[in-house]
Design goal:
Elements: H1 5-37, E1 44-48, E2 55-59, E3 68-72, E4 82-87, E5 95-103, E6 110-112, E7 121-123, E8 134-141, E9 152-156, E10 161-167
Antiparallel strand pairs: 1-2, 1-3, 3-5, 4-5, 6-7, 6-8, 8-10, 9-10
């Protein structure tokens, strides 16, 4: 004789539960893998793409292309920092890293500060032209310091740093 209807329903229910649990375990495993691959605080990156479709390349902080330094992996970025969220999936539930990026800058470095949806890029100061968005780091200080010679402040209150940005020569 065949199996009873109740036995078949229980078998299907057990299979569904096993599939759901297996899917959840696989998803959490993927999140942990991506989290482990995310850049760590103190490391540097170069950003590509736009704020809507960004990607990163991890670099040594000494690399001429290393535009940003990871300041935090807990979110809550300062207003001058770039918030970069790495996620899997299409919802916030798949976020594996919530990074705060600040310019990896020293006196004499030049940056094309880009636009609203374009991340900054570290560039050669010789690329500056009339009307360009390229700025040079004139000095580095602490919040509350004044920028000399018309340089504009890039003040990170959370990290207690101040970059004075002037027109690239």
């Amino acid at each position: 004789m065949g199996k009873s209807l109740a036995t078949r329903i229980i078998g299907i229910g057990v299979a569904v539960v096993i599939a759901v649990v297996g899917g959840l375990i696989w998803n959490k495993g993927q999140e942990k893998v991506e989290e482990a691959k995310a850049p760590k605080v103190g490391e540097c990156v170069n950003m590509t793409g736009s704020s809507f479709d960004a990607d990163h390349e991890e670099l040594s902080c000494d690399d001429a292309k290393a535009t940003y330094k990871i300041m935090s992996d807990k979110g809550g970025c300062d207003e001058v920092e770039l918030n970069y969220t790495i996620s899997i999936g299409s919802t916030d539930s798949g976020n594996v890293a919530d990074l705060c990026l600040d310019l990896n800058a020293a006196v004499g470095d030049c940056f094309d500060l880009g636009g609203i949806s374009t991340p900054a890029k570290k560039v050669a100061c010789t690329e500056a032209t009339a009307g360009s968005t390229i700025a040079e780091v004139a000095s580095v200080g602490k919040p509350g310091d004044k920028c000399a010679n018309g340089a504009q402040p890039w003040e990170n209150k959370k990290r207690k740093t101040l970059l004075c940005m002037g027109a690239a020569a």
